[in-house]
Amino acid sequence: MNDHETGTKRAHAHRVTLSDQVRAEALRRGGAWPSLADECARQAERWYGHKPCRGEDLALVFSQVFRAE
């Protein structure tokens, strides 16, 4: 029996995006970063797309997005 036959809706798990990762990092860093979290997330997606990163790739994204110049 599938969801259509039972009339129930299956809850879909939220897939983590690069924006989610950047927002979480902004909150973790504290200071002024949490207020800039959405702006940083948009910038990261413009530069690197939506797919989440990990390891050295994520470190590179963070180093570029959270530059303090």
List the helices and strands and how they pair.
Blueprint: H1 3-6, H2 18-29, H3 37-48, H4 55-65
Describe the structure.
With 69 residues, the protein is an all-alpha fold. It has one domain (13-65). It has helices at 3-6, 18-29, 37-48, 55-65. Helix 2 runs antiparallel to helix 3 (37-48). The protein is elongated, with a radius of gyration of 16 Å. The model has no long low-confidence stretch (mean pLDDT 89).
What keywords describe this structure?
4 helices, mainly alpha, 69 residues, elongated, single chain
Compose a concise summary of this entry.
The protein is an all-alpha fold and 69 residues long. It has helices spanning 3-6, 18-29, 37-48, 55-65.
Given the helix and strand composition, which structural class is it? mainly alpha
The termini sit apart by: 58 Å
Largest sheet: none
How many domains make up the coordinates? 1
Residue runs with pLDDT of under 50 for 5 or more positions: none
> How many extended strands?
0
Helix content: 55-70%
The fraction of residues assigned to DSSP E strands is under 5%
Shape: elongated
The secondary-structure element order is: HHHH
Question: Rg from C-alpha positions?
Answer: 16 Å
H/I helix tally: 4
Question: For the residues shown, what is the average pLDDT?
Answer: 89
